[in-house]
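Worked example 3 (structure in, sequence out).
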């Protein structure tokens, strides 16, 4: 797409923990149809920044704007209802629910127990549609605990997208995946972006991040060190020195 529609702006984000400034004035714009990657060494402030955008971390200063609405004071739950969906580093599927029940939880933003409302035919039908969209119908009745890492991650993405997110945020999605599973996940993220969602990914696996991102922001010591296309970032000598080594 030529005209980029900005979906989310995080402006001048600062997060301090006591005397420690974990994020020192970082701004980012996420656009429909684009994947933005966030990378940097351990302790650079990536997770803190990420949590500040999703509402899981209170800001010291700065603001988060979704569309034209300032959501800075909304909880993570409130932001999720407006279309900011995320996955977590340690996953988030319920092991003793099936894939389709996990999706149904996503449809309901996890606010009700699954067993009761899954009986509602409408919810089951919508969950099946989500699975079909993500080519996961064949695992609909597998328990979360029985899914391999690659499928698990794809069901997590499907669940996050179940309620038609405007912004999808993924925290270390490639961790623990094989090369083939990473390639499958990269294709899924490409599809999500092509559908018009703005995607933000934080990831240590730099090859994966380079393969999925349109733009990458590199953080170091709580600040933005560099931003650019994967090609620009790969060959940037400061980034190589600070991180890629
Ligand atoms: N809840 C907290 N209380 C105090 N300090 C924190 C807290 N969370 C993070 N920090 C500190 O803030 C800094 C940034 O941490 P953060 O986890 O955001 O970095 P990161 O780039 O995500 O690192 P990693 O790649 O290891 O996950 C670190 O110095 C960390 O110790």
């Amino acid at each position: 797409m030529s005209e980029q529609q900005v979906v989310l702006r995080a402006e001048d984000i600062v997060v301090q923990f006591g005397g420690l400034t974990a994020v020192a004035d970082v701004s980012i714009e996420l656009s429909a149809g684009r994947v933005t990657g966030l990378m940097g060494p351990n302790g650079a402030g990536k997770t803190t920044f990420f949590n500040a955008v999703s509402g899981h971390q209170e800001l010291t200063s700065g603001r988060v704007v979704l569309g034209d609405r300032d959501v800075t004071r909304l909880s993570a739950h409130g932001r999720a209802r407006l279309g900011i969906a995320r996955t977590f580093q340690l996953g988030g599927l319920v092991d003793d629910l099936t894939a389709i029940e996990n999706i149904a939880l996503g449809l309901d933003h996890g606010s009700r127990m699954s067993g009761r409302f899954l009986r509602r035919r409408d919810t089951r039908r919508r969950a099946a549609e989500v699975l079909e969209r993500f080519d996961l119908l064949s695992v609909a009745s597998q328990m979360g605990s029985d899914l391999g890492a690659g499928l698990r991650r794809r069901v997590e993405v499907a669940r996050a997208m179940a309620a038609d997110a405007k912004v999808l945020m993924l925290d270390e999605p490639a961790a623990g995946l094989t090369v083939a599973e990473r390639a499958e996940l990269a294709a899924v993220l490409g599809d999500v972006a092509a559908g018009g969602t703005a995607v933000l990914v934080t990831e240590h696996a730099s090859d994966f991040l380079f393969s999925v991102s349109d733009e990458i922001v590199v953080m170091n010591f709580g600040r933005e060190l560099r931003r650019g296309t994967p090609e620009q970032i790969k060959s940037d000598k400061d980034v190589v020195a600070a991180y890629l080594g």
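Notes: The pocket of adenosine-5'-triphosphate is lined by residues 17, 20, 22, 40, 42-48 (CB under 6 Å). Residues 2 and 245 are 34 Å apart (CA to CA).
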